[in-house]
Design goal:
single chain; 288 residues; mainly alpha; 3-stranded antiparallel β-sheet; two-stranded antiparallel sheet; 64% helix; elongated
């Protein structure tokens, strides 16, 4: 028996809050990724790790805030704790792989395509692994084409966001990119939910797992606290808003000096009447 699925049982409250959380995680993560591209090599890994954790936590929190408004008629919904935690770990790890690729290889060409694809697949994996952690008196079935569309949305959104992070422009540039990323990630979530069909085994009975209020609300406290701490780090870093490097790499090319030459205050030797003859008389010592 097919049951009716409702993803907006609280109206627009859960979609709006979920979108804001996706934007927050995206904004912090993209600024950290941008910051990693303008610091010394020793600090880069730390900024990229912080950015990956911020994006992963924001997306995971967005997903389960949206799931708080998800109901299925004639059956309660519970969640498996281990799988739910695993979905958070998958989001952070796979987003981290994509972010590190772009952070070290640059937001262009093959590196951008690879990093965006891995990050997008991480977002989609988090979503569908979190859905696999649902426990109810029925079976979940998905429309293949709609699932493929949701994965494509995630990959395109991740690639565009990483490209924007690599531009190293101002704070408003990253805010705009995070708004677009939040819209795309939230759209990916609800596209994936639109692919879902639930076939009930029967009416009655309590599924295994824990209720959403008992499990998701306490679990979201950790990622929310982390996002707040990451926000503090971003706000108190003076170079995050400007998006300018605090170091200038030394250009090491043949014929380019490591430091600027000191200008002579006197006249050029060639200007002296004896300058040219002095230069002609100079010969490098020859090896005997």
């Amino acid at each position: 028996m097919q049951s009716t699925v409702d993803g907006f049982s609280y109206g627009l409250v859960t979609p709006v809050v979920a979108y804001l959380m996706a934007c927050l995680g995206g904004a912090l993560g993209l600024r950290c990724t941008t910051r990693s591209m303008v610091v010394a090599q020793s600090w880069r890994a730390g900024w990229l790790a912080l950015g990956a954790a911020a994006i992963g936590s924001g997306i995971w929190t967005m997903h389960f805030i949206a799931m708080m408004g998800f109901t299925v008629e004639q059956t309660p919904i519970h969640y498996d704790k281990a799988i739910t935690f695993a979905s958070l770990a998958v989001a952070i790890v796979m987003v981290g792989v994509g972010v590190f690729i772009v952070g070290y290889r640059g937001a262009t060409g093959v590196a951008l395509f690879t990093g965006g694809t891995v990050t997008g697949l991480g977002i989609a994996s988090m979503h569908y692994l979190g859905m696999a952690g649902m426990r109810l008196n029925g079976v979940l079935e998905y429309n293949t084409l709609t699932v493929a569309a949701s994965v494509l949305i995630a990959v395109v959104a991740a690639t565009a966001a990483l490209w924007a992070a690599g531009q190293i422009r101002g704070f408003l540039w990253s805010v705009g990119a995070s708004l677009v990323m939040g819209l795309a990630v939230t759209g990916m979530h609800y596209t994936g939910m639109a692919a879902l069909r639930v076939h009930l085994h029967g009416i009655g009975g309590t599924p295994a797992g824990e209720a959403p209020a008992a499990l998701l609300a306490p679990m979201m406290i950790g990622p929310l606290v982390f996002l707040c701490l990451a926000g503090v780090v971003v706000m108190f870093d003076p170079l995050m808003v400007m998006g300018k490097p605090d170091w200038t790499p030394v250009e090491r090319k043949p014929g380019v000096p490591a430091r600027p030459r000191v200008a002579h205050t006197g006249r050029h030797p060639s200007a002296h009447p004896r300058g040219r003859s002095a230069q002609r008389s100079f010969r490098a010592p020859q090896n005997r």
